[in-house]
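can u do me a favor
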């Protein structure tokens, strides 16, 4: 029997709490994975040390060398950090905020904070000083750990507004100036070295699996970020050693589960990428490490796809012909295998030798048996592109509130564009399905979060009367039990005529029909028709991450096919290039032909002067579109769409 409390409680009979020291009822099952004995993070780590103590756990690159630590060394470093946190005055159930790129120090600070009785709290490196202040205040941060002087400056700017803050630690580089309670990493790690272990052990012994150990802050695309409280039991992830690369933001649940908790559970070795991984160096790390498992958000896979297309366009006619043949063979064979066929035709085996193996080696994925994507929607075109090269990309689906993945695609359970089936021990309910079987996806299982810290109303909204977690996503199951996401409730566009329209399928279709388009966003809430904001594929400043005016090689090649000489975004926007404008209109018209109703047709569109980016604020840390932010930023252009005449190939609106 589950009891859903109507008010916050410290009772372990309730499924949720919003109190920092709260305890919840664990959702134990009668059998299977859900019936396993609950453990704390310390107990989980101790098991890892017993099983994998001499295995390498972490690998950090210093110059040209990889510096590695075993699981025994990793555990001892976490204990040292915990003792130092206690020495600095970390209070029980208070936060240690960590602000920086992925590193061994990040991991050690994270687990050290938990062992010391605090909360591990990742903070996005893209956060403003004010956003950092909000997270630090909300979690009651006693200590903040920053990567470098750039991140330190953000904290120093708001330090006077953080009365609970006792110390700041910088884990990379020398301090530019000495300040009270500001420490280098080596200074910090030595603080508790002379103290006995008894105080730390007493705190560890007092910890329970149903208490909070980690806070994951939602990206706040529709309001202030919410602190998702995850218990020790939540993060306990439910062989041969895997090699993984850590590069995605560790303040996001997907990265924490794949980089921190799964490796501890299964003894994986984690290699840290360079801080400029998402600006281009990731491919070098992939080739060097040759991981056995790799997770990429959709934009990472799209960037690899764009680069491969750009390189392919410059190859000889014969190479292009062989590649096209191999991709067609690969796609058709893998689609048949996906539906149960086991035979590998001769032409597929030949293509594997001629093309697929070389592509995998060139990408550093020749040892990789598990390529994953998640955290945002991915297009069918991108999935089919990699499938045609015999690189199936498996979709994961979940959220911070479900402690990461709830469903997963696997080699023997895979459907393209589906996010797979429930992980063992997880349950799914489609809430209030329509005639097509589509409704809100709800989760249940031991992975469901404790509640939002200090947010009772939001917690009540999220957790159903019977304990189900409302995801806010719309989806349905096919007859074989595969889950498909059909939209997001808060993203639904409700037209003036009352029709509910999910924007993502339309946006994906336009990007597929018009290869020069980088980002597309449908607008039209409470309006008489749909319109669309479009951006072009352009190069990115590797230092700042900001989009530049130059088109990508792929975009330039597309323009040349149209007879256009455009090489810059500014050559096209404002109606300067009729050939490109006409091609965009033609692509949108093709998408409109397949619309299931007139209300779902895009009537007007505008080309924006720059692409969306994290630096510009239009995209979140995992490259997810921040729709309310974009709508506010481009309000003038959107208003113009609903006052001017309709867009046509003869009269494109692009200014």
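np, heres the sequence
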């Amino acid at each position: 029997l589950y009891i859903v409390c109507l008010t916050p409680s410290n009772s372990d009979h309730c499924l949720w709490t919003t109190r920092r020291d709260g305890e919840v009822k664990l959702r134990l099952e009668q059998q299977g994975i859900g019936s396993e004995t609950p453990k704390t993070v310390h107990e989980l780590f101790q098991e890892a040390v017993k099983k994998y103590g001499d295995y390498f756990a972490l690998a950090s690159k210093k110059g040209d060398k990889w510096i590695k630590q075993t699981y025994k060394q990793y555990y001892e470093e976490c204990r040292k950090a915990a003792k130092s946190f206690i020495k600095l005055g970390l209070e029980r159930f208070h936060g240690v905020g960590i602000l920086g790129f992925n590193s061994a120090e990040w991991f050690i600070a994270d687990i050290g904070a938990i062992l010391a009785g605090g909360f591990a709290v990742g903070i996005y490196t893209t956060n403003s000083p004010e956003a950092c202040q909000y997270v630090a205040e909300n979690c009651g941060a006693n200590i903040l750990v920053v990567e470098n002087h750039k991140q330190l400056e953000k904290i120093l700017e708001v330090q006077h507004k953080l009365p609970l803050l006792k110390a700041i630690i910088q884990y990379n580089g020398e301090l530019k100036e000495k300040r009270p309670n500001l420490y280098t990493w080596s200074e910090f790690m030595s603080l508790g070295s002379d103290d006995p272990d008894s105080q730390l052990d007493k705190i560890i012994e007092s910890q329970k699996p149903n208490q909070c150990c980690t806070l994951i802050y939602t990206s706040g695309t529709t309001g202030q970020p919410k602190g998702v409280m995850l218990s020790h039991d939540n993060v306990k992830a439910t062989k041969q050693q895997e090699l993984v690369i850590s590069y995605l933001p560790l303040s996001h649940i997907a990265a924490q589960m794949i980089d921190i908790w799964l490796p501890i559970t299964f003894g994986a070795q984690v290699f840290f990428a360079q801080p400029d991984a998402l600006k281009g160096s990731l491919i070098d790390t992939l080739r060097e490490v040759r991981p056995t498992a790799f997770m990429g958000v959709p934009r990472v896979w799209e960037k690899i796809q764009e680069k491969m297309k750009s390189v392919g366009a410059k190859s000889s006619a014969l190479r292009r012909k062989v590649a096209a043949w191999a991709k067609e063979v690969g796609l058709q064979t893998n689609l048949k295998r996906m539906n149960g066929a086991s035979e590998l035709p001769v032409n597929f085996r030949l293509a594997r030798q001629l093309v697929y193996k070389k592509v995998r080696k060139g990408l550093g994925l020749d040892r990789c048996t598990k390529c994953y994507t998640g955290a945002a929607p991915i297009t069918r075109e991108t999935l089919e592109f990699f499938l045609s090269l015999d690189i199936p990309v498996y979709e994961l689906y979940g959220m911070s509130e479900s402690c990461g993945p709830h469903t997963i695609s696997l080699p023997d359970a895979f459907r393209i564009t589906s996010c797979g089936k429930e992980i063992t021990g997880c349950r799914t309910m489609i809430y209030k399905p329509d005639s097509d079987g589509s409704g809100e996806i709800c989760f249940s299982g031991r992975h469901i979060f404790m509640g939002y810290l200090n947010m009772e109303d939001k917690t009540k909204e999220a957790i159903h009367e019977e304990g189900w977690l409302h995801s806010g996503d719309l989806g349905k199951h096919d007859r074989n039990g595969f889950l498909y996401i059909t939209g997001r409730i808060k993203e639904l566009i409700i037209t003036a005529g009352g029709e509910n329209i999910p924007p993502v399928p339309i946006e994906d279709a336009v990007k597929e029909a018009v290869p020069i388009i980088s980002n597309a966003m449908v607008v039209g809430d409470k309006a008489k028709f749909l319109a669309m904001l479009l951006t072009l594929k352009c190069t990115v400043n590797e230092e700042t991450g900001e989009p530049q005016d130059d088109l990508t090689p792929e975009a330039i090649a597309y323009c040349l096919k149209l007879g256009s000489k455009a090489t810059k975004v500014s050559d096209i926007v404002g109606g300067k290039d009729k050939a490109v404008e006409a091609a965009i209109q033609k692509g949108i018209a093709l998408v409109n032909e397949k619309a299931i109703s007139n209300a779902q047709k895009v009537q007007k569109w505008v080309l924006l002067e720059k692409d969306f980016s994290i630096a510009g604020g239009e995209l979140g840390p995992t490259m997810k579109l921040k729709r309310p932010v974009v709508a506010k930023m481009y309000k003038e252009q959107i208003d113009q769409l609903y006052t001017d005449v309709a867009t046509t190939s003869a009269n494109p609106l692009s200014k």
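The chain has a mean pLDDT of 92. hope that helps!!
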